[in-house]
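User: Sequence recovery, please. Input:
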């Protein structure tokens, strides 16, 4: 037994020596050094170096809940709306010999229900998608928006960014309500020259589609058209133009007035920034065009052989804007005042006259069930001359932010604007519509008794005003309320009250007695010259 035990112990010792020798011969695998995230102080707070690069990145975002109450009218539907919003920002910057190379991306995701928050403007602009189920269509919007995605380098800005035309852009409001230009995101290529002492100048080529408001179209196969057909080529958004056939007899040509994208909008801005605030003067020009005739129709049985009609010629809308921002720390730290004014022809989205009413539509009202709405178009085709008659609009606005304490602040804002159309083109449209058989259209003959009471292409003015109170108990957390009032009024005359006589237009009026329109059977129609509405909004917002 002793002999066996000795042999086993010797064998074990031998194996240990051999194993140790083999272990010593194996290569040792060393752990890769960990590269810790380093703070980047070159570009401000919140940046860190992306490991393995010399690029600094800042990640930020927002979470928001918002609720809205909308004033009720006899024909209105939902009274309240709710919205949840998520935002993610990525800001990457690299120092180069030519200055900072920057790339910025912002993504917004939202889900809203009810009036206003289920935005028709967002759907028309391609950033909102409606639910399709029973009792949800038109009342629910799931929003997906690439709000920003641009590169800045050596004075150039390329990508999706805020328009260089804009200045105030509703910085002090929960949702842009006051009149004034605010295209928060558009596709552009711009160059900014910095002259020192706070002066700079920018020339920008910008996406024209996001600034287009329709050309007025009066018929769709003999009936009125809807706002959602405005930007669909060939969808039947026609306007009639009077022409002649080969024998000199009158015929009617229907022109498709859906605008095409042929050239960018050109924007220029001069800006001054100083410790006391900022000032900016900006201007823009954009093309307004119409397509060829879609069809030619006989008038009074005349032949359409060799038909010739004046084709609407291209026109150029334009706008100018001046803005001033004043810091007023002598009242309270953080206080500031904005003043802004604009004027344009064929440039409704540059003056921002349709900011409350909604963009990308030919006609709108303050809210569902209000007493009347108004046309919102950049141009009208005069059917006798074939020329584009540009609309005219102007707006002025002011906004003031005041800190009562570091935790409590308020904003008050107000705006006024006017919009007008050519009188002759409006009358000629009614005349040619009647000749073309569009007797049920929105513009009856100017000789018809109801022509004076139609709400199409009427000169109007708007007042929008509001105020907010916001509590920030901790940094980057806002809890607040905002109230808004809006009023739309005719510059002169009256229209049929759509709240009391829904669906009745000027074509149904057969007589006017003592200045009051009358329908067949002797019924008297109610009329109005102004309408108003108000909203109350609540917001809880956390930025990080």
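Assistant: Recovered sequence (544 residues):
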């Amino acid at each position: 037994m002793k002999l066996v035990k000795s042999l086993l112990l010797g064998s074990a010792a031998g194996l240990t020596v051999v194993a140790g020798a083999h272990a010593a011969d194996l290569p040792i695998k060393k752990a890769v050094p960990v590269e810790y995230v380093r703070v980047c102080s070159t570009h401000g707070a919140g940046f860190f170096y992306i490991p393995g690069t010399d690029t600094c990145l800042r990640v930020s975002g927002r979470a928001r809940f918002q609720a809205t109450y909308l004033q009720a009218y006899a024909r209105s539907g939902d009274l309240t709306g709710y919205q949840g919003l998520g935002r993610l920002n990525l800001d990457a910057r690299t120092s180069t010999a030519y200055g900072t190379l920057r790339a910025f991306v912002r993504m917004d995701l939202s889900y809203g229900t009810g009036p206003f928050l289920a935005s028709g403007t967002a759907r028309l602009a391609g950033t909102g998608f409606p639910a399709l189920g029973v009792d949800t269509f038109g009342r629910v919007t799931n929003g997906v928006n690439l709000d920003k995605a641009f590169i800045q380098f050596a004075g150039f800005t390329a990508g999706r960014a805020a328009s260089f035309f804009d200045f105030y852009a509703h910085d002090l409001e929960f949702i842009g309500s006051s009149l004034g230009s605010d295209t928060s995101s558009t596709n552009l290529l711009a160059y900014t020259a910095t002259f020192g002492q706070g002066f700079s100048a920018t020339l920008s080529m910008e996406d024209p589609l996001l600034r287009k408001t329709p050309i007025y179209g009066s018929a769709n196969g003999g009936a009125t058209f809807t706002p959602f057909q405005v930007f669909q080529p060939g969808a039947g958004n026609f306007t009639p133009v009077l022409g002649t056939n080969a024998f000199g007899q009158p015929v009617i040509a229907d022109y498709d007035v859906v605008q095409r994208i042929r050239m960018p909008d050109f924007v220029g801005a001069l800006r001054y920034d100083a410790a006391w605030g900022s000032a900016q003067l900006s201007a823009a020009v954009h093309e307004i065009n119409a397509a060829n005739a879609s069809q030619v129709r006989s008038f009074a049985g005349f032949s359409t052989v060799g038909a010739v009609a004046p084709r609407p010629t291209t026109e150029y809308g334009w706008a100018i804007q001046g803005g001033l921002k004043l810091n007023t720390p002598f009242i309270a730290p953080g206080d500031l005042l904005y003043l802004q004014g604009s004027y344009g022809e064929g440039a409704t989205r540059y003056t921002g006259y349709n900011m409350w009413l909604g963009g990308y539509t030919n006609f709108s009202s303050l809210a569902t069930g209000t007493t009347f709405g108004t046309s919102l178009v950049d141009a009208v085709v005069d059917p006798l001359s074939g020329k584009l008659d540009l609309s005219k609009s102007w707006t002025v606005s002011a906004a003031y932010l005041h800190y009562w304490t570091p935790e409590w602040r308020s904003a008050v804002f107000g705006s006024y604007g006017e919009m007008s159309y050519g009188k002759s083109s409006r009358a000629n449209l009614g005349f040619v519509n009647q000749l073309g058989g569009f007797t049920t259209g929105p513009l009856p003959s100017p000789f018809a008794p109801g022509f004076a009471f139609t709400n199409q292409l009427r000169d109007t003015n708007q007042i929008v005003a509001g105020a907010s109170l916001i509590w920030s108990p901790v940094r980057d957390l806002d809890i607040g309320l905002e109230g808004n009032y809006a009023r739309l009024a005719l510059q002169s005359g009256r229209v049929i009250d759509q709240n009391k006589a829904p669906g009745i237009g000027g074509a149904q009026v057969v007589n006017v007695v003592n200045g009051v329109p009358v329908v067949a059977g002797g019924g008297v129609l109610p009329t109005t010259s102004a309408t108003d509405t108000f909203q109350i909004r609540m917001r809880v917002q956390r930025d990080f």
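The first helix runs from residue 2 to 25.
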